[in-house]
Amino acid sequence: MSGTTLDYHNDSLSLSVIEALADELEADPVDLEPLYHAVDPEALDQLFQRGSTGEARVTFTYEAHEVEVRSDGTVLIDGAVHDRS
């Protein structure tokens, strides 16, 4: 099972979530409702910043979709793992 893996040098985790949501909703990321209406993107990025130890998961609802973010950078939407394009 492959998933969205975070590149800590080039992307923030919140950007990976936005890309996965845009893919799921078949929309341009700029047309999406702001992520901060569902979760604090800065807090999400800080929680999973590079050098963090242990495993963590954050789950929230975005426009009736369940989003799960894992500390390894994996993003799941409604239980489906989203690959980077």
TrEMBL record:
A Pfam short name: HalOD1
Halobacterial output domain mapped to chain residues: 10-78
Protein name as annotated: Halobacterial output domain-containing protein
Organism from which the protein derives: Natronorubrum halalkaliphilum
